[in-house]
Amino acid sequence: MKAKAMEDNMTFHQRGWYGEVKVTRRAVSSYTKAIYLNMIAYEMCPHNPNDFRISSYVRVMKSLIMKESDVEELRNRKILVHCLGRDDEVVKMFDQIDIPPVNLFMFNQLRYEMGMLHNTKIKAWFWELFVTYFSSPWKALGLFIGTALLVLTLVQTHYTIKPPKGN
Q1: CA-CA distance, 101 to 6, in Å (whole number)?
Q2: pLDDT digit string (tens) for 22-74?
């Protein structure tokens, strides 16, 4: 099920047990704050027939980037590239951008659809299991080997305590 696009390059897809937010790669530099503020100011002009995509995009990014680990995850997923030196500089930059409450429908629609995915505990547990244990082939292989060893140990213990009749 594909959600409505927040921006041409920001969508949310729900696929059964998990959801995926697709965001286009963005570069963050020392000029990014000024660029975003100017673009937001242009969107606020009364003659501009705009749907406030930049403001909505920055609002979503502000909600995604709360701490340094969020920036690190976005960097690892190749969504955010920055040359500010440290990840906390990116967090500070997005914190300093004040966004007027415009086009809350687009923002709230994306947040609602993301929230609906995590309303059930089973989906959240499944996703946590998937991210934690199946994020790489080596982790998955280790989990399967560990589970097999545990099951074989339990079977061996059972047959040691209660051997089959006739032996």
Answers
A1: 15
A2: 777 778 888 888 998 898 888 888 877 667 778 778 887 888 888 888 888 88
Return the half-sphere exposure (C-beta side, CA atoms, 13 A cut-off) of residue 65.
25
β-bridge partners, 21: 12
Domain range summary for the chain, segments of one domain joined by +? 10-118
Provide the 10 A C-beta neighbour count for residue 150: 10
Positive or negative, the CA dihedral 47, 51, 53, 55 is positive
Apex CA 50: angle with CA 4 and CA 115, to 5°? 30
Phi, psi of 81 (to 5 degrees): -120, 130
